[in-house]
Amino acid sequence: MNESKDNQNEKPARSLNFIEEIVEKDIREGKNDGRVHTRFPPEPNGYLHIGHAKSICLNFGLAAKYHGLCNLRFDDTNPVKEEVEYVDSIMEDVRWLGFDWGDRLFYASDYFEQLYGYAVILVEKGKAYVCDMPAGEISATRGSPTRPGKESPFRNRTVKENLDLFSRMRAGEYPDGSRVLRAKIDMTSPNMHLRDPIIYRILHTPHHRTGDTWCIYPMYDFAHGESDSIEQITHSICTLEFEVHRPLYDWLIREIGIYAPRQIEFARLNLSYTIMSKRKLLELVKENYVKGWDDPRMPTISGLRRRGFTPESIRNFAEIIGVAKRDNVIDVSLLEFCIREDLNKKANRVMGVLNPVKIIIDNYPEDLVEEMEAMMNPENPEGRTRKVPFSKELYIERDDFMEDPPKKFFRLAPGREVRLRAAYIIKCESVEKDPVTQEITAIHCTYDPNTKSGGPDSNRKVKGTLHWVSAAHAIEVEVRLYDRLFTIPEPDDAEEGKSFIDYLNPDSLKVVNGYLEPSVKDSKAGDNYQFERLGYFVVDSDSRTGTLVFNRVVPLRDSWAKTGI
Ligand code: ATP
Ligand code: MG
Questions:
Q1: Domain 31-266 classification at class level
Q2: CATH 2.40.240.10 corresponds to the domain 356-467
Q3: 278 is catalytic
Q4: pLDDT computed for residue 2 by the predictor
């Protein structure tokens, strides 16, 4: 094959997204000396979710692509909602996703002194003033997008008085809410964020890092941009709702007179059947609608990890969805596609039966146990094999048998033949039923000894192949079958008078006993498998010696509960 043809067969590189275009242009023009420096700036007030994962992949991904750096910075300016537990979980999640901030772990709270100094610069320039109006009055006098705001009666305080009051705010002389520091911009601006926004408030609440050192705290808009500047961030990437904050971001940096990063906004990730607001996720946890932040039904990174998602599948998802300038909703089945694709390559195959019915092979010797050879993973060319015990009494899936089947049913039925995966062709001869309930208690079959792999009739074709386990050898496990947490695609858009809580799926978790081939018995938490024909499963951390617990990651195809399980 010649070279040009070879190249044609290569997957075409995807085109640049709009952020990469900006970055490449800046590099070409020698802006920031060609440096690329991004940051991921979570507020430690909850666990990270799949939306954050997108932002992490984007920020760390850009730094890697352009030989730059990416900081992890906690925007910890609100001591009321922030906790060390969240800081720790965020670091764990970023690392798990496969990213490394090196020695660049920062906290906005580390800059409190510097930020205070910046605020003093604004006061000295006559660009900020202490306002004594209560919060309610401040918002009432801000006006509306079509109506200008009213200037505060404290707006024209002298620099001297402002400096004095601001330092006494810091010294703790005033109670919460009695005064704020506001930027002096323009009460008639069409952009509400420029109508003398609050930049410091009094809050006598200890901070998880600075303790009692401070009783005034910078507002997010103030701390965020100035922290970007302190860290010499070149491209400050954030979600679209901050677009209207950008003039304030730029104004503050310009007036203080410090290094100016460029803020770029992209559309936040929204996923169908999922909520992403930290406030709502916290409500699910606090009100016990789920078992914790890492409940496998949660869209948190820790929930997805426990559910059995891999870092590769999430990074691939972030790459596939790309970066958009407009808000949209991504179908959650795309995320499920990504984990299927990854686990198809990685997960070993095993057989397990979740809703068993007994098969008795009448012509199979009573005490014989054969070790059948089965592939670990047909997708892996060097795939090894495993041994699966076969004996006279087996379990198959109850749904794989029908007494009175329709024409297109290719599984087991009276008089019909199926192949048992990695074993023999069997034929159904009769059924035993409970005399009272009429439920089938056992299915009697015969087997064809020539149809085993390597046997003279091993290639004989039948329409259906079923998974099975040997009843005497199967190990019993707990299996947690998860479905979507919400019943409607956009639970955030609840009808009037309803909340997202009203759309919780009552069947999002179903627990069953499963019977698995014995090869899985020494599995540990995090080990993943494909249960043939059923889906991908992962061993849960609730497993105890002797009692394995499995989570279903996803069913095999994009159809929930196809096997009726
Ligand atoms: P909330 O859920 O209360 O709106 P938040 O998700 O914005 O808060 P942050 O901790 O401020 O919480 O987010 C950290 C970073 O992650 C920010 O840069 C933010 O823009 C980004 N981010 C948050 N949610 C998403 C999302 N759904 N899609 C993409 N990026 C997101
Ligand atoms: Mg935020």
A1: alpha beta
A2: yes
A3: yes
A4: 41
